[in-house]
Design goal:
about 300 residues
């Protein structure tokens, strides 16, 4: 049970993404904020690796292509997620992003030749019903909802690629993935500018500089999350982690959205989202069972 604390930290870190994006607001252009997120995460991971000195920050010369591909997918996934958060309530984004397991299964079926069963088809139909009930095109958050759905597909593509290439989840790997993502997003810093990072944001009883929230987004929401994910995945199966993450993270993120920004999801979003989360959990559980049977057979 020594994975409980790292898993708890991962959940809170991931759930805080929308909070820091919304706290930053219009003070920093969203595409610049995307760069700040991966840049500060890279610095944090580099410092952690150096302090622990268990792994050398050695450039993976024999794995350049994979590093560049995964770095690009991370940059794309993080960018879509942040943009969605800037356009829609936190609950909407995390719920529609939770379609990632379905895209993962689709990509796994196409590229990894994993055959679907009748139960998978039923779960897909259930998920489609959930999306229909949630009505992503309704209201003033349609664009953010659609981008969140697309982001789920990008995340699934990244997971499928990592599985296909048999890549690891070591902290050094993650450091170089983030470094590549930072390089991809660096041009946006010059295109859109650094933002009003030294302005002060006034709250009821205190003030903070704008730059604090992008730093938190990079270090807490991204660096800390990826660092502890690498720890969790050494203690539990990746599919079990995904199962817990799908169920818990959206709920925690939606709760933070309500407590901090008083964002109340619409009724259709609650019911549709619940169906999506349940069906996603079932799919992850089935995939875990299938992989477990394969290992036993081998």
């Amino acid at each position: 049970m020594n994975y409980i604390l790292p898993l708890f930290i991962v959940t809170l870190a991931e759930a805080s993404i929308g909070v820091f994006v919304k706290l930053t607001g219009s003070n920093v252009p969203i595409f610049t904020l995307n760069f700040y997120r991966v840049f500060f995460a890279t610095i944090f991971l580099g410092i952690i690796i150096f302090l622990f000195k268990k792994e050398k920050i050695k450039y993976p010369k024999n794995n350049i292509k994979d590093t560049l591909v995964v770095g690009f997918l991370i940059a794309l996934q993080i960018s879509f997620f942040n943009v969605a958060m800037s356009l829609a309530p936190i609950a909407n984004v995390v719920i529609f992003w939770s379609v990632a397991p379905f895209f993962t299964f689709i990509f796994s079926t196409i590229f990894l030749k994993e055959k679907p069963s009748k139960a998978h088809v039923l779960i897909f139909l259930l998920a489609i019903i959930g999306i229909f009930i949630a009505k992503p095109l309704k209201g003033g958050h349609a664009l953010g909802n659609i981008i969140a759905l697309i982001d789920g597909a990008v995340y699934a593509a990244m997971i499928t690629y990592i599985r296909h290439e048999g890549m690891t989840e070591k902290k050094v790997d993650i450091f170089w993935f983030m470094t590549a993502a930072s390089l991809y997003l660096l041009p946006f810093l010059f295109i859109f500018g650094p933002g009003k990072i030294f302005n002060m944001i006034k709250y009821s009883s205190f003030s903070v500089p704008v730059i604090l929230w992008p730093i938190c987004l990079g270090i807490i929401s991204t660096g800390v999350a990826f660092f502890f994910i690498s720890i969790v995945l050494k203690k539990i199966d990746a599919n079990i982690y995904s199962l817990i993450d799908i169920i818990v993270s959206p709920v925690v993120a939606a709760l933070l959205g309500y407590l901090i920004f008083t964002e109340i999801p619409e009724t259709n979003m609650i019911f549709g989202g619940l169906i999506l989360l349940v069906s996603g959990a079932f799919l992850s559980k089935m995939m875990h069972h299938k992989n477990k049977v394969k290992k036993i057979a081998i």
